[in-house]
């Protein structure tokens, strides 16, 4: 991270531009895929969520941070948060565990 305020502001601005472009690209890709073939859209969405869940399983953080939440419900909560993060202007989930980090949120 740059150590001057101008470089930090530029980095902050570029991160939001990058996230905005990525969100727009994903939204347009899903919209175009829906126009072409709904079966492909469903296959893409299922593959995307399965890859996400497999990634969480490999990392060992599939169980969500809410105490007592069972594994199936935990997977559902993670998938819902993934949809919100993927298709909104909100680049980060409300807690660090929601975006896949092992650090505790402060």
Task: Please tell me about this protein's structure.
- 67% of the residues lie in helices and 0% in strands.
- The chain has 106 residues and is mostly helical.
- The protein has one domain.
- The two termini are 20 Å apart.
Overview features:
single chain, 106 residues, 0% strand, disordered C terminus
Radius of gyration, whole Å = 16 Å
Query: Which term fits the overall shape?
Result: flat
Domain tally: 1
Distinct helical segment count: 3
Q: Which percent band covers the strand fraction?
A: under 5%
Q: Could you tell me how far the N terminus lies from the C terminus, measured between alpha carbons in angstroms? A: 20 Å
Low-confidence stretches: 100-106
Structural class: mainly alpha
What is the string of SSEs from the N terminus onward?
A: HHH
Largest sheet, strands/sense/barrel = none
Mean pLDDT: 80
Query: What is the tally of beta strands?
Result: 0
Q: What is the subunit organization of this protein? A: single chain
